[in-house]
Amino acid sequence: MPSRQLPQRWLRLLSMPILLLAVFGGTQRCQAQPTLSPGALEAPAALTVVRAVHLSGDYKQAIRLYQQVQSQAPQSEAAVEALYRQGQAALAAGDTATTIHSSLQLVIHPRAGRWQAPGLLLLGHAFERSGAEDAALAVYEQYEALEDNLDDFMAVRKANLLFELGRDDAGWEVLAEAYAALDAIPSRAGRWRVARAFSHHAEQAGRTQEAAAAFRTVLADLHLLGLPVVTHIQALWRHVEREEAAGRRDLADEVRQELIREYPRSFQALQALRTSGNRFPISDDDRTAIYYANGLWRDAIAAADDFLAGNPEPARRLRAAYYRALALLRSGQQAAGIGALDEIAARSPDSFWADRALWVAATTLLWNAPDEGIARLERLVAEYPQSQFRPEALYRLGRILTARGQESRGRWHLAAAADTVPESFYSLRARELTGNFQTTPPGPFETQRAITTEEQEQWQAWLVERQGLDLAAQERQRAKIAADPRFRRAFSLLAAGFTAAGEEELRDLADAVADEPAALVHVATTAHTGGYIRIAMQLGEQAFEGMEGVRILEVPRALQKLIYPLGFVGLVEPESRQRALDPLLLTALIRQESAFYPGATSFADARGLTQFIPGTARDVAAALGLTAFQLDDLYHPDVAVRFGAHYLAGLLARFENNAYLSLAGYNGGPGNVARWARDGAADDMDRFVDQIGFSETSDFVQSVITNYTLYQAIYQ
User: Fold this and answer.
1) Which one, of 238, 217, 192, lies nearest residue 507 by Cα?
2) Domain holding 348: CATH number?
3) pTM for the complete prediction?
4) Would you say 645 and 579 are in contact if contact means Cβ atoms under 8 Å apart?
């Protein structure tokens, strides 16, 4: 059992110049902060209030309030916790000096107790961020003297620091020891982390075979990182290059085949195809999908023709025939393409491809042969009740039939669209048109952010009634998950600001309990309560996806709040109210833009909760009179929310309070909106969405409107 007492070595840290400088700087920073009126809060009850401010994203205000708790009762346990929470808030705000100052006060506090080890982990992270590698190494050693639950994580951190300090031999020693014990690491996320670090440094050192071998050991666990699909695919291609560099073309070809097999619609699959050198067989149906996805229409048609001439098995014939039909349409051969789609639907009505073929044919024909398009939509909704295209097909039929004077049939189709499961943009649009639309409640919403005990009990009762999972079984699931080492590891990392690593641990844990809803939602609720909104939302969505045939508006409120959280509502609500903007609309936008992750950065360098690209951000900063604005300020929730509220409110004013036009302007640029709103589309939102020229913007508008409608319904 590791010692719970700090060694005397810790006291020697106090003599380190970097530490003294950091503490002095932090003290100055803290003293410069204004304080609230004395007596306004009393410890320890005040911590609950301050914690709510902290979780709202108002980190600067939280720091001031935590300081007040400390000043009123400096020797109390509440003061110790306030020191720790202040360090967390300061780290989230990018104020590492204050984090170092408060964490140092904490770890030498005579009543540090259970906060000592978390305080050390936080302190080490702050030193890392401030560039004080030696101090970070020393602090991590002290942490390991108290805790052994993160040995593999600590090994990676220490090795990276040693390499940065030029102490390569020591770095390799630490990393090699961790890599040799890979199988003993208690989580797949931890094994991935060590192997990834070993592979990276081996590659940097020119040890290409070792780099490739290390990466290969955990390649199957790549999904634990929660990467976007495109990033996942890029990582696979990077491994192809790594194996090639190591002279292992056979292993590189294995990954090439995986890209072709699993991700045929990617550019990397085309790269894999072009560099395969005929070393392994590639079927013409795979070639068809790859060529189509990369815009090579003629090549796709030729590959499909070659494949179909070979009379392969029916399922594979259909896949090739489907992409061939799409390629015909894209190359301007509409009659031939429609005919090919109709043939798929007629000859294989029970196949995976039949409803897709009908849908593409219908939506293509609606523009120039509407009666033929309508006929295919009617067949789709009649014959394929489980089709993913059914809600939009019903909705479009409802609008078209109503416009043609067939009001009774039109209303029936709209009502059917509104009743589809699960909720979608078009089912919710149908509810709006049929009058079953929830208007925005008046708020305030901040009081609804937390998941209450009553709401958790309602969730447990629902599991008994709807899932047949009795309370004793639920308790066993929760107890098992709480005892899992990954649970403690994850929340230790998240609390110290190691967000990516903590989320990886939770995804690993969630995979293990994917079929246990009580356990999965317990993990998600714990994350939500701690303010880790992005991962809580992802785990809530995972739990909901396991419940077939259920609407989001039918599940208990606890699960609804996980999937549609009021993240940073303490900032969103006042900024929105100040600009006569609906707080739920801004919340819906943030959910889509960043999933409530303040550090979000897109490939286009859009940053923060509300995802501003540099040019637009500078324009908004100038409009707000922020002369000292820096782009990294967008990673601070108070700045991001203020910018988002200002910009969205301006667009709503410009486009006469039309949310569709304003959201299209937010994502695709306000200058494009007039072009998309031509020919009367400004008065017909379905037509406007159809005419949006960027698929990303069209998807964005539909997603935010869907979010907004569900937020309105959930928080009524």
Assistant:
1) 192
2) 1.25.40.10
3) 0.91
4) yes
Which residue's structure tokens are 């990182």? 225
Q: Which residues are catalytic?
A: 593
Convert the pLDDT of each residue in 295-332 to its tens digit.
999 999 999 999 999 877 777 899 999 999 999 999 99
User: What amino acid is encoded at 697 in this protein?
Assistant: T
Whole-angstrom distance, CA of residue 468 vs CA of residue 289: 43
φ, ψ of residue 228 to 5 degrees: the values are: -60, 155
Alpha helices in 205-228 (DSSP H): 208-217
> Does 381 lie in the same domain as 320?
yes
- Total domains, the chain: 5
E strand map for 470-577: none
The span from the CA of 47 to the CA of 88, in Å, is: 14
Residue with tokens 């037509």: 687
- Rounded CA-CA distance 190/488 in Å is 13
pLDDT band of 227, cuts 50, 70, 90: confident
For the stretch 573-624, pLDDT in tens is: 999 999 999 999 999 999 999 999 999 999 899 999 999 999 999 999 999 9
In a domain, 694, yes or no: yes
The two three-digit tokens of residue 424, written as one number: 């979608």
User: Tokens at residue 120, please?
Assistant: 């050390």
* Digit-coded pLDDT (tens) for 652-682: 999 999 999 999 999 999 999 999 999 888 8
Decide if 575 contacts 638 (C-beta within 8 A).
Answer: no
Radius of gyration of the chain (CA): 28
